[in-house]
Design goal:
Beta Polymerase, domain 2, 9 helices, 6 strands
């Protein structure tokens, strides 16, 4: 069982029987035998025994283990050994005489911090498997949905690439027109004839005309 959960159960059990002056100390840095020690007072033999019984029953109900309970025969000083935590239930005179706080009280744990365990968590059995913490932003199902959606984004990327190519092609067309002298494609360009070419054409036409007339007269005489 988690030590914080154990100390919360012990404090609840002690408060149920009206324990006085509850003190809890962290002893990890002092010994390897146990991690916490609690020192409380009971006003009578009857109350100290009742406090020990309350701790024993409450820890057992939550799946904990009680290693030993000592001093119940007299009730002046009852010790409950929970393994990771030792609970000393003492009458005020015995507590003032032995002053256990001076031995173990270097690091006192505030009761408010020690009880920061919800009632539901404290009531869970000790051997319950630990719960896996959920992700900060996404659960497992949401993460798998996001992975499944990623392939669907590829067609959108292809469309963007096609638009980019089309835009580049359209931008290149005006440049080609300027390179050909701004002349529209597929049209014949007329070139103006020189004066020498015009005179030569007229002379050639004049020479051909008499030949045609002679040929006609010869044909008529026959």
């Amino acid at each position: 069982m988690d030590i914080k959960k154990l100390q919360a159960i012990v404090i609840d059990a002690l408060e149920d029987v009206k324990a006085q002056d509850i003190k809890v100390f962290d002893t990890v840095h002092l010994t390897s035998l146990f991690d916490r020690i609690a020192v409380v007072s009971g006003t009578s033999n009857r109350q100290t025994k009742a406090l020990a019984a309350s701790v024993r029953d409450k820890v057992k109900e939550n799946g904990g283990t009680i290693l030993s309970v000592e001093g119940e025969d007299t009730g002046e000083w009852v010790l409950v050994d929970l393994g990771d935590m030792i609970v000393h239930i003492m009458q005020p005179a015995i507590r003032a005489y032995y002053r256990l706080e001076e031995i173990w009280g270097e690091k006192e744990i505030k009761l408010g911090a020690a009880k920061r365990v919800s009632q539901r968590t404290a009531s869970e059995p000790m051997d319950a498997p630990p719960k896996k913490a959920a992700g900060r932003h996404l659960t497992t199902s949401q993460a798998s949905d996001d992975v499944a959606e990623k392939p669907a984004r590829k067609p959108a990327a292809k469309k963007t690439a096609a638009k980019t190519v089309a835009a580049k092609t359209a931008a290149a067309k005006p440049a080609r027109k300027r390179a050909t002298g701004d002349q529209p494609a597929g049209k014949t360009v007329k070139v103006k004839q020189t004066k020498t070419a015009v005179v030569s054409a007229k002379v050639a036409a004049a020479k051909r005309a008499p030949v045609k007339r002679t040929a006609l007269k010869t044909k008529t005489a026959d």
